Amino acid sequence: MVALVIVLTLSVVVIFYIFIIPFTLLQGFYLTLFHLLFGHWLLIMIVFNYFMGVFTHPGRPPQGMLPEVVSMCKKCIAPKPPRTHHCSVCNMCVLKMDHHCPWLNNCVGHYNHRYFVMFCVFMWVGSAYVAITSFPLFIDQFRNEEPRFQPLKFWIVNLSLDLALIEPLFKESPPDVMLLASNFSDVVVEKKVIPKPVLKKLTYNCVLYEFMLCCGVCAALALLLVWHYQLISRGETSIEHHINKSEAARLKAAGKIFKNPYDFGTKMNFKMLLGLEYERSFWRHILLPSMHLPYGDGLTWRSSTYILDPSSNPKTL
Fold this sequence. Notes:
The protein has helices at residues 2-25, 29-55, 113-143, 155-172, 198-233, 238-253, 266-274, 282-285; strands at 71-73, 78-80, 85-87, 92-94, 99-101, 106-108, 187-189, 192-194. It is elongated. By secondary structure, the protein is mostly helical. The strands form 4 sheets. It has a two-stranded antiparallel ribbon with strand order 1-2. A two-stranded antiparallel sheet has the order 3-4. A hairpin with a 4-residue loop joins strand 5 and strand 6 (106-108).
């Protein structure tokens, strides 16, 4: 899956350089400059957060003394700290495990949760940006039989391809047959149309591929981000969502109300996830590449009802 993500992202970037950027040149120098700066910033943030999510270990309980234990893992035969769950794919316990992501080929846990979320956010922004930017070119290629804009102006290459299409006809056709060939035009032989040159088809296929792929990724990531926004705003992971839902139903049947102990409100929940406590800047640590650590060590967690003091915790093993 990692290779697929890299190939798809690389294909979008290459097509953007070859087809979209030349199209923006027709709309003005300053607009093209904006696309170059904004597009490269997005690309850097996508690549950085993706590879950090892939190569950053999500975190696992250390061997030996633990400050707090809530249960024992039946598969690892080891104590589990709060919010720790066992991943059957990685075959280990993961601190604050959210889920195992096949696109990262890694678990999403305490130390790479931020990278996963930020990758999804920047990838969504990038997909929407490319789809919006390529939309006029997509309409031009899709509706018009003879598009007004042809970004591939490599005349020598195009002429060589045209001659390659025409040369066999010289050998097979009588001398008095009229041949008409031009760059990005059809070849007419005795009123029969020869297929269009390769580069013209390539332009159409690449623009269509770019626009449809980015629209699909943008829609899929929008649903995923809405789901994770709800989870983060409630201070829970994907696994904890199902646990808390079952616990809330059980307590409701007993006439009680369930309170998630790790919910500090939407704003504070996001600050804790993004590691923006201790006067860290959103502009420096979120909008630019940053390897700062998340809140806490993943072994002990403060709750919305009390702050755990590990030095006075009697459950230390």
